[in-house]
């Protein structure tokens, strides 16, 4: 695999003048304006008989501006500036590439390199708009983060109103919220233009265009710049695993053939996603995809990428009907698409070489070995991979098991089962669980009572009490034990009460569920604010102590009959009591320091019962316990405790939590 990567890299050096020049092709392909106002156009259309440029600038004459045919299926056109120095193709004017196919048919296409496409309300397909305004940035990108706390976001649904929200709304209403919650990274979904809104952005039609349904490219650039001013890293959810089948406003059949950019025939179609699959062995496909990554970094100043559908890319079977047990035979053999793997290695190598501060994340459910090790070691080069087994485990536990049947060893195994020295992003739930047809943790725990009993004026029912406490407990143990980074999908931090469903025929094109009701956390009569406050403080304590950037946890206890889990990380001791009805008095845990209460989730601000004396101090003794030289007797433990030489966090009741501050030597 490394040899394949090295040979590709060497060929690029010899034939294209290096990876730097090769990946900068977005500045020459498509339609680009020179400093003197002249326009240079370039396309790759190997199946075309002739290529022309038509648009507002020439009265939509399909033949007045023909491209010149070059080698290897490339076509170019230069339009000199006007006599007054103005560009011949004005900013904001509409364009189309006109392809004469091999059968003589004229095809009006959007350039694969188009930077801006829009759709009028009365039209089905998108129009290509020439976009070349001046650029200006004020704020530098944040430094590379040690602890990554990711807020997974979708701009269009980021409003309580039933409509498509804007970049401006996200900039001035959502970014401050993300900052306040303690997340230091926002991962943006559905930015690459997609004709079908309900695809969640995963059926991309224009790879170089920021979605116009939220605003202009400059609005997105402003949003990223403001995020940087807040110290927030911005990642793009990039889709290079497949493309929309659209031909009128997509890549499909751009030159009239089914093999331009994609594999021809059956291999070029994804049977589950109903989309086209890239030919990663093709030289021009590599140019297109690598340049696409670089454009998003350099034009928009994204700080990295979450690569979607990596499992589909890695294997010829695309993961369809295939399980992964961890056996190495599943990862090495003819079923692996080494061309796709080589592309991912090239992409990560390019990003780290040109922009070493950038972060890359792989969405891979298979567990491909070394995917998150450096390319120089023969690895895939990613920084992180998603711990996709964790949310599935929580769903399985809540859906299938009674509280008293929860298996502590199985929970710990799922949270800690990751490849050594490969970084994982832990999450209890993401956008997948929020979509219609599935349920979020809050919905699974509280279900219909979320509509009737979330007011503080109504009685605290057992269902709501259990649901609120377990919601906090599950998210915190995932945060602390599950990986080297943490991810949350927008709204899930406060237990958003509704599923996510985009407007489509099946729901009469309704936007009612395509929104996030952030206003629920601002109503002091609703219990959602308790979950919101806890999530915020959980992140802020991680910011102080940095457990995500620390080595993996040492688990000292997973007691099946007591339903207790205890582990150490970043100098902290975490203790969870998952027993549905048993609390403990004078429960011994290994430690070496005295503590006092600093933060208590049994306090009123977290929806607790205020049962703890915050003036109590706890002292350790030289009494070995759980292979630790000293221990501490905790007077009460209901569900969760975190101890530290500086801090103790404790959850009592169904999870009543406490943070304790280190007072001195024990």
From TrEMBL:
Pfam families: Alpha-amylase, Alpha-amylase_C, CBM_48. Keywords: Glycosyltransferase, Transferase. The keyword Glycosyltransferase applies. GO terms for molecular function: 1,4-alpha-glucan branching enzyme activity; cation binding; hydrolase activity, hydrolyzing O-glycosyl compounds. The active site is at 308 (nucleophile), 363 (proton donor). Pathway: Glycan biosynthesis. It catalyses: Transfers a segment of a (1->4)-alpha-D-glucan chain to a primary hydroxy group in a similar glucan chain. GO terms for biological process: glycogen biosynthetic process. One of its GO terms (cellular component) is cytoplasm. Residues 161-535 form the Glycosyl hydrolase family 13 catalytic domain. Belongs to the glycosyl hydrolase 13 family. GlgB subfamily. This is 1,4-alpha-glucan branching enzyme. It comes from Bubo bubo (Eurasian eagle-owl). The lineage of its organism: Eukaryota, Metazoa, Chordata, Craniata, Vertebrata.
């Amino acid at each position: 695999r490394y040899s394949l990567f090295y040979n590709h890299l060497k060929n690029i050096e010899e034939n294209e003048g290096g990876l730097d020049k090769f990946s900068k092709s977005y500045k020459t392909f498509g339609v680009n304006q020179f400093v003197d106002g002249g326009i240079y156009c370039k396309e790759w259309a190997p199946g075309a008989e002739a290529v022309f440029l038509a648009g507002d600038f020439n009265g939509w004459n399909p033949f007045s501006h023909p491209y010149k045919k070059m080698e290897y299926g490339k076509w170019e056109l230069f339009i000199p500036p006007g006599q007054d120095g103005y560009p011949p193709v004005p900013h904001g004017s509409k364009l189309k590439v006109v392809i004469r196919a091999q059968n003589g048919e004229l095809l009006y296409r959007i350039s694969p390199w188009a930077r801006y496409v829009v759709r009028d309300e009365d039209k089905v397909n998108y129009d290509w708009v020439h976009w070349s305004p001046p650029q200006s940035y004020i704020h530098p990108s944040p430094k590379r983060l040690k602890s990554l706390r990711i807020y997974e976001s979708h701009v269009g649904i980021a409003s309580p109103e039933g409509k498509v929200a804007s970049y401006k709304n996200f900039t001035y209403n959502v970014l401050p919220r993300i900052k306040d919650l303690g997340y230091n990274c926002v991962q943006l979904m559905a930015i690459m233009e997609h004709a079908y809104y309900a695809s969640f952005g995963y059926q991309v039609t224009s790879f170089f265009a920021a979605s116009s349904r939220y605003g202009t490219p400059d609005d997105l650039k402003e949003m990223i710049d403001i995020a940087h001013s807040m110290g927030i890293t911005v990642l793009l959810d990039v889709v290079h695993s497949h493309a929309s089948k659209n031909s009128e406003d997509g890549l499909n059949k751009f030159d009239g053939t089914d093999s331009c950019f994609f594999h021809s025939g059956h291999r070029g179609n994804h049977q589950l996603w109903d989309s086209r699959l890239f030919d990663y062995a093709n030289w021009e496909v590599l140019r297109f995809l690598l340049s696409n990554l670089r454009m998003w970094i350099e034009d928009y100043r994204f700080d990295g990428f979450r690569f979607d559908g990596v499992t589909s890319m890695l294997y010829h079977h695309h993961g369809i009907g295939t399980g992964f047990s961890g056996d190495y035979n599943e990862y090495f053999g003819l079923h692996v698409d080494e061309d796709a793997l080589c592309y991912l290695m090239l992409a990560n190598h390019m990003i780290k070489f040109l922009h070493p501060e950038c972060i890359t994340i792989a969405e891979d459910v298979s567990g491909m070995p070394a995917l998150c090790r450096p390319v120089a070691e023969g690895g895939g080069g990613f920084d992180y991979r998603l711990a996709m087994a964790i949310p599935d485990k929580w769903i399985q536990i809540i859906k299938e098991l009674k509280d008293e049947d929860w298996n502590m060893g199985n929970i710990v195994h799922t949270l800690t089962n990751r490849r050594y020295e490969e970084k994982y992003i832990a999450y209890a739930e993401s956008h997948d669980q929020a979509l219609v047809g599935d349920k979020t943790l809050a919905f699974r725990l509280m279900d219909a009572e979320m509509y009737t009993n979330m007011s503080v004026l109504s009685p605290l029912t057992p269902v709501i009490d259990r649901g609120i406490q377990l919601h906090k407990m599950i998210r915190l143990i995932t945060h602390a034990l599950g990986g080297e980074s943490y991810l949350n999908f927008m709204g899930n931090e406060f237990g958003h009460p509704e599923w996510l469903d985009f407007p489509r025929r099946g729901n009469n094109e309704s936007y009612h569920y395509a929104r996030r009701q952030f206003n629920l956390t601002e109503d002091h009569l609703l219990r959602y604010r308790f979950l919101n406050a806890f999530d915020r403080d959980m992140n802020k304590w991680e910011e102080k102590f940095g457990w995500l950037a620390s080595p993996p946890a040492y688990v000292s206890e997973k007691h099946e009959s007591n339903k207790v889990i205890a582990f150490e990380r970043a100098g902290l001791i975490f203790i969870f009591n998952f027993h549905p009805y048993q609390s403990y008095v004078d429960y011994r845990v290994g430690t070496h320091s005295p503590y006092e209460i600093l933060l208590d989730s049994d306090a009123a601000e977290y929806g607790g019962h205020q049962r703890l004396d915050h003036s109590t101090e706890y002292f350790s003794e030289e009494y070995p316990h759980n292979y630790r030289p000293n221990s501490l007797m905790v007077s009460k433990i209901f569900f969760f405790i975190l101890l530290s030489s500086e801090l103790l966090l404790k959850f009592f009741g169904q999870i009543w939590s406490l943070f304790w501050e280190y007072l001195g030597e024990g």
